[in-house]
Design a protein that fits this description.
heterotrimer, A alpha+beta, B mainly beta, C mainly alpha, A: alpha+beta, eight-stranded antiparallel β-sheet, 15 strands, C: mainly alpha, 2 helices, elongated
Chain lengths: 300, 441, 83
Amino acid sequence: MNKQPIRNVELLTTDDGHCIRFDAMASPCEVIVASKDYQLAQTLGKLIADEVWRIEDKYSRYKTNSVCSAINKSNGQALVIDHESYLLLNFADTCYQLSDGVFDITSGVLRHVWQFDGSDSIPCDAAVQQTLVNIGWHKISFNEQQIVMPKHMELDFGGIGKEYAVDRALLIANEFTELPVLVNLGGDLAANKPREPNLPWQVGIEHPGFVDRKPMVVSLLKGALATSGDAKRFLLKDNVRYSHILNAKTGWPVLQAPRSITVAAPQCIQAGILATLALMKGEQAESFLAEQEIKFWAIR
Amino acid sequence: MQLINKKTPVNIKAALTIATSALLGTVSVAGHTQESQKVVEESSWDFDTAFLYYSESDRVSAAEAIINAKKTFENDQVLNLKLTIDSLTGASANGATAQPNVQTFTRPSGKGSYQTQANATPLDDTFKDTRVQLNAQWTQPLAQNYTGSAGVHISKEYDYLSLGLNGNLAYDFNNKNSTFSVGLSYFQDTFEPEGGIPVAFASMPLAYGSEEIDSGSKEAFDATRRTDSDDKTTADIMLGFTQVINRRMLMQFNYSYSKVDGYLSDPFKVLSLVDDNGIAQDYRYENRPDSRVKQSLFAQTKYHFEQNVVDVSYRYMWDDWKLDSHTIDSKLRIPLSNTSYIEPHIRFYQQTAANFYQPFLSQSQEIPEFASADYRIGEMSAYTVGLKYGVKLSDGNDLSFRLEYYRQDPKDAGHQAPGALKNVDLYESVDAIIAQVSYSF
Amino acid sequence: MSVLYYRPHRTSLFKYSVISLAITLASGCSSLGVQPWERDLLAKDEMALTSSPLDAALDDHIYFSKEASSGGKSFGGGGCGCN
């Protein structure tokens, strides 16, 4: 996984603008700009791709030189962090608090016992309990200067990194141009304004893993959409479907969660977290979002 | 955690909104601009490296390597460190004229001599020098729309030391479309040439210390020397104005004033003292004024076509040696693909002679107060044609190659050549090849 | 991961670009310069006044040592014994 994929930016001309494609964070990514200016599109696409790759390099746990890996290898020693990392940790802290500990960026070690390959290999509870020892955001102390993480624990920004990159990409787009821009990183996306005055972006959402389902078309004037859930990632035993959404407190999958939720919010990272938090509510996923008066689309 | 409410629905949405704006920064466009720039550029060193080879046919060749390291800190502070190493070998014109016979010259050290064949321009092959130069430059915003910069320079070679300081202040206005800048720089150079600094117009002494026949003495050599080392100071002031014309075009205008004081002669350069038949009777060390005031006007424009970028500049320079010059430099950058480009380059240069330039001294005339036969301050035209190819590698680093041809054509500014000098080339052209590789990472 | 597509839109784009072009021209006449969001081309490395600083430094050194003029664009004073 450490092998660097080729980082190319591909530019396509569409009817009324340009589409820039590149690969990042193990996903196909697109930037759509409603401008005929080839150079502008090229420059903008490169700026955005560079920023997304920067975030990937900095926060992917697969990258050995990332900040995330440095923290994971810190072995209990205090590690100096920069302002951006501090802000991300702060955000993760808020999510942990809001979810009452169910959403926890230290829960990644659970992947050692849970492999959601569609099989029926449910781990034994003892193995899960053993893993839980190395989970718990509250065991981590951090401030603006440094982070101290106990040995054997691991951080994983996978739950917020891509959405954060979408928001950062749009910030850069707004700084660069006033033209309508839509950024899509593997299905998590945001637009800065309607593609034409009062004309929304028509976004087709293909729910992951649902091969037989027609893409759902959503109109988006501006703001973000993020999707959580993956129909391909589950375990099935004794007719019980175990989703890959794990409760960090119990170490066990959230039962009766929708298979996929798409949420609309002003910022992509908000949408992503709301979708994930909703899935973690299991049976109450939809009512949780409805109570918040949040626009969402769920598939059960 | 117990302190946290058993979240009421409104709490989560509101709390996430607050957390999101804390993460992504303020909502104002200006705030975004600063923030994203900062994060992108922060905490990494950018390295630019270049290696250049310069070679004149039958004369000097030089190799020069530069490593430039740049770091951008928070608040747009920039530190730039540059290391330059160059090495020069080969032969350089010593100022004497070609003759119908073989000529013998004493090396600058006084120890040993070299010979020049008949009808060939005398070249001193003693040149061999390595230079190390370090520059450090700090640039930072000082206040709204003001940017300050300060730097130090040190350059050391075997016989030369140069220390320099500079400062620059830039003021942006008209929505950062216009910039006015003022810069000052000061150099203090010390020259300690091998064999010391000759007395003006002293005769080139005979070589000593070798086993060759007819050698001179150290005493006779030393009598032609004035001192071991001498100094030169250079003070520059530069006023600049940059204007964005439109989305595709910008222009820059500079005026600079430069005052150089001290030892401005070249201790290795001589003039032939010829008789009425044009035959050299003696070689006399040159002598230049001890001050020079240079001024220049410079204009540059860059224009972005649909794909190509053109860069044209013009410089007019004049000084109180009555030397003036015109330089036109133009480049056209042509993208070949999304990741590569070629850039043809053409440069024209033309200068008039300094008022004390003369290709030789005549026995029939009095020795003037100042004289130099250095073709570099004589009338001359020159041109450069070149091509650069640059490519962005798949890892995002830049690689480029540059190949150029440089030709200098010294001109006769109306000096009467007596006798034998009519039959030799007093104004020999110089051809050079410039090859360069650059890599940025 | 999900993949999305966009329905083609052909409505009134032409009119929109004509209007925006007119606005650009009108504002362009009033004074020199651009708005911050029009700096896309100017922001490119190749549009910097000194787009290749090392090339410039090397050229300055060559011409400083081979010709009687120096500087103009940047400080061209002393610095080496090559002249």
